[in-house]
Amino acid sequence: MLLLVLGIGLLVFAGQRAWSWREDVSAEHQRAAAVSAASTEVTRLISVSAEDSEAAFESLLDGATASFRSDLKQQASALQKALKANKVDAEGEVVSAGVARSTDEQATVYIAATGTVSNSGTKAPQQRDYRVKVEMRNVEGRWLVSGLEFIP
Fold it and tell me: Quick check: 98 and 108 in contact, CB under 8 A?
C-alpha cells in the first residue's frame, strides 16, 4: 500500500514537472519569436536607402500593428522625400537584443544595433550606433511592432 501511494505521488510530481517544463519552453519560444521579429523590423528601419525607400517602408508596414502602421503611413511620404533629397544610403545590423518583459500577448524588446549612413552631405559613410526600445504585440500568432523608440 505504501509503495502504491509513493508511486502515485511520484507520477503526480512528474506530471507537474513536465507541465511546468512545457510552459517554460513555450514562454521561451514566444520571447525568441518576439526578439526575432523586433530585430527584423529594426534592421529594416536602419537599412534604408533613397533607391529602395518605397519597398523598405512597405516591409516596415507589413511588420506593424494597425495603429503603428497608421502612424508610419502618416510619416512615410515626408521621410521618403527626405531620403531621396539627401541621397541617403544606410546599412545596419542588430548586435544584441533582449526581452525586458513579456506575456503571451506582448513584449518589450531592447535592441542594440550598429550601422553606417552616407548622404549627400558626407564624403564617407559615418558610423552609427543605435539603441531601440520596441513594443511588440502578438496578433494572431504573429509578433508585430506596436511602438518603437530610439533611446539616446
Answer: no
